[in-house]
Please model this.
Amino acid sequence: MKKLLLATILLFTACAQKEKVDLILTNAKVYTVNPNFETAEAIAIKDGKFVGVGSKEEITSKFQTNNIHDLAGNPVYPGFIDAHCHFLGLGMNQQTVDLVGTKSMDEVLEKVVAFQKSNPSSFVYGRGWDQNDWEDKNFPNKLKLDLLFPDIPVALERIDGHAYLVNQKALDLAKITIHSEATDGYIEQIDGQLTGILIDGPMDRIESIRPTNSKETLIRALQDAQKICFDYGLTTVNDAGLSKESILLIDSLQQAGALQMRIYAMVSNSPQNLDYFLKRGKIKTDYLNVRSVKVYADGALGSRGAALKESYSDRHHHFGAMITTAEELDELAQRIAAADFQMNTHAIGDSANVAVLRAYTKAIAAKKDPRWKVEHAQVITGTDFDYFKKGIIPSVQPTHATSDMYWAAERLGEERVQGAYAYKTLLEKAGILALGTDFPVERVSPFLTFYAAIARQDTAGYPKGGFQMKDALSREETLRGMTIWAAYSNFEENEKGSIEVGKFADFIILDQDIMVANPASIPNTKVLGTFVHGKKVGGTSDNF
Model:
């Protein structure tokens, strides 16, 4: 009897000494992505943070909860971070004509007409067409748009965001004629007639006539984007270019609990935005980080707006165009550095990249830990790669390589394309690589990112053997790029990006282990559960 009583007392004492937590997961394969890239069996979560990571025995002997789940071997990863995307843009796409995947101009027109019929508007806007996916790969023209919409302005944005197809009504309202000049882009004319194609700078003239979105529309867009991203396992997104008004709206929604996505917001480069944020300083909460400026050096390769050192191989005497000149980049870099903000610059062509890299090198020479980023770093030549040894971070999107590989060599030539989409080379120079998607230019799925980085193929397995496999990444490098390296690029490596005690409990549970799965199956991976701050916010399973 005494022995039984003693055993009961010891058991009660042991239970009483266990720390109560909110959630325990056991029998998992936890990829911690800590410095040693260790795996664990179990995790414990309390107050939105990891408080225990280890073996099942270690966690269950130290912690107790009424909310414990046996994962039966399912893999757990840190929540994915998309280091370059357009989160609000994705949401706005849900409110407009979706042209992604269209196979002809006729299909584009069908979608526009159908959308306008069911959603009547005084200004028709759509996004997502890509003439490189059509049988006729020339830019479309406005002739049929003019016939279908003679009295309503229409603006259809190319998938990369660097070209518009607009109708005559939109051109008239924007006061664009055959005599209009564009030093920061291109207004296409053929035989002295406007075609409706506007590239880069002139697009702003169309933006100036677009009706302003209501607050209700913006809120709906943000919440629509959040649902899509949570279901794909994204727990932090880097929105590459937001206005003051959008950032303040996001902050207010997060503060009210109406938006749970963590957002690294890059301030769009405009005089109004810079005057506001650079004077007031950084904003940092658990859900919002504002400390960077998004700048465009040039346009996109697909629309031949990328600035190249030598002319395009498929169009002689055409070099693309700088949106922000080298002199302007220098001035901006000095101003941003003086405000202790990070500069994140879109650079596609090799001419744009070297201009950005030179401006960065001068501006951050005296900075201790600037972590300035080159967004895309898409085409780089010769010794320009060496600039990345100086603490500059390449932020790249692996699916761009697998989308562009069909025509990139035509644009660049066989020799110059060897320095394009050079992710392994960039990693070797910089030491880290931040990975993203650029959605909605590309699809949201981070599993397509993972697959493209390691296999360098599209989902049909083309090309056999992979595209320029010298620049493929390993699985470990890819996972780091989607988690801890992306967090580091945001100055957030101490709070997220790995599953370690003290960090936010942002993690995902998958239906297969992408670290060992057949590469061809990775794009079909399903997210069973997405957790932010220890709470389930997305995923396909109801078991958690």
About this structure: The chain has three domains: 1-73+499-544, 91-207, 297-473. The two ends are 42 Å apart (CA to CA).
